[in-house]
Amino acid sequence: MSDVRTELRRVWRRSARYRPATATGWIIALTVAAYLVQLATGGALQRAWQYAPVYSLPATGAPFEPWRMLTAALLHQPITPPGSLIGIVHIGFNMYALYLFGRPLEGVLGRARMVAVYVLGALGGSLTVLAAAFIPIAGVQTGVTTPVIGASGAVFAVLGAVAVVQRRLGVDVRALVVIIGINLALGFVLTGIAWQAHVGGLLVGALVGGVLIANRGPRRAVRARLAVGAIAAVLVVLALVPAVLVR
Question: In this structure, what CATH number is given to the domain that contains residue 66?
Answer without folding.
Answer: 1.20.1540.10
